[in-house]
Specification:
Blueprint lengths: L1 H35 L3 H9 L5 H9 L10
Helix pairs in contact: 1-2, 1-3
């Protein structure tokens, strides 16, 4: 039983770290893009609210360039 809990805890910590890294990357990208575009409201909301990647994904979806993949 102890081994089972240990294996699951290791897996859970690994998943949590991956989600934390992905959320941080998304937040940095969206903060950078919103600052460059002068979108103060988005910048403030993205900086304050921790939404586990949901708000940054919404921003990136709403403000994407159609037909182009680029990191400005």
């Amino acid at each position: 039983m102890e081994e089972y809990l240990s294996e699951n805890l290791t897996w859970l910590v690994t998943v949590a770290i991956i989600i934390l890294i992905a959320d941080t990357i998304l937040k940095l990208i969206t903060l950078w893009k919103s600052a460059r575009r002068g979108q103060k409201a988005w910048y403030i909301c993205l900086g304050i609210f921790n939404t586990c990647g949901i708000l940054p994904l919404i921003y990136l979806y709403l403000h994407r360039k159609r037909g182009a993949i680029s990191v400005e």
